[in-house]
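EI: anyone free to look at a 351-residue chain?
SC: sure, send it
EI:
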Amino acid sequence: MATTGAPVSVADRLGGQCGRSGIHQLARFLGDLRSIRILDTPDTRPRRWVGKLWSLLRRDPVRNQSIAFTELEARLALAASSFSSVHYLVGENHAPCFARPASDRRPVIATLHMPASAHAEPPPKTGGVHTLVLLAARDLSFFSGAWGARHTVVIPHGVDTVYFHPGVQTADDSTPSILVVGRFLRDFPLTAATVARLAAAHPDWRFDFVVPPEAWHGPDLAPLRALPGVRWHDRVDDDTLRRLYQDATCHLSPFRDCTANNALVESLACGLPVVTTDRGGVRDYGAGTVYPLAHDHSAAALADLCERYVADPVWRARIATGCRAFALRTLAWPVIARRHLALYAEVARAA
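SC: here you go
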């Protein structure tokens, strides 16, 4: 059967995202192309029932059986069509599938989100993957050849730069505001130490936390909950989240590790400077070039950078403009979609 050069795209979702966030947004931008079939992945009871039967037949490990159904659905879509490949947008969901030899000659492409440090050991070097897509370059050597992959490439995580954009500043925006967003792989003890240091020196500053309840009520952030300038926002809608990005002075986000990060790219799209340290894949997202890194992984260094943004609004405005320009040039979903289309064509030619 002749192939079209376009893939079946499996639009997996990751938890905890607002409606405009996440790698599945790529499918939204590719979905306008009739040549690409998008498989959405709702987690429903019927999908789990069928997925469980499929897993039992394959003797797969216990997992969310809706994911197993998705793999069956992708296999059937390839069997009934001339699509050239299948692209799993959240590859970690499908590792048991990748460990098997390819059941179809058409290539499997997988995007990985977790850093190397999240793996107890490297993935196997045998399996059914043709091409791996990483979100940051730092872990190229760790994942090279994983699950039998012939090629490993880096394409950054995208962001909706139409929805996430700078806001209009008003006279009411004069109070310095430090924003903290997200939970996964964040260094919350360091975040808490930095906020405590800043709040003691600047009791009139505001600190907005957009974190889930288990993080807010956990031990790491306990010292901050009674501070008068600290506000917790739980389950905010998309517009509220965007407004918080637009109104903040800077986004405080030290990581334990990371590849890409929704809050990071959304901040850049909103022209919000990010205050972080040289951990994980942040340099692939403008750290150290578009916006400065804290000089070390300490509360003092992070607090110094926050204070500089407040003390020098002209410098902050220049950094903010650079953040927005970087997002438009490098991270906007149409840019990322074009890079994926080029990858699909290259994989189809090589298959």
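EI: Residues 194 and 300 are 7 Å apart (CA to CA).
SC: 👍
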